[in-house]
Predict the 3D structure of the following.
Amino acid sequence: MKRLLKGACAFHRVLIAALTIGIPAIAQRQNRVRQAATPPTVRAPTKKKPVPPKQLQAIVASHGRWLGTT
């Protein structure tokens, strides 16, 4: 009976050691996955600012030319 208990204790030590080593690695992987899924922030100079009419017309014209080439 004592031998069985010693074997169980050894198993539990190994199990605890494996979990102690494995859980931080799993948590780091989940953080990387979350960061990859997060869309990048937009850092445009015109963010939340009105675009001047001439610049807007130039952008629309350029986009029209681009649509015509595809």
Observations:
- Residues 1-39 form one domain.
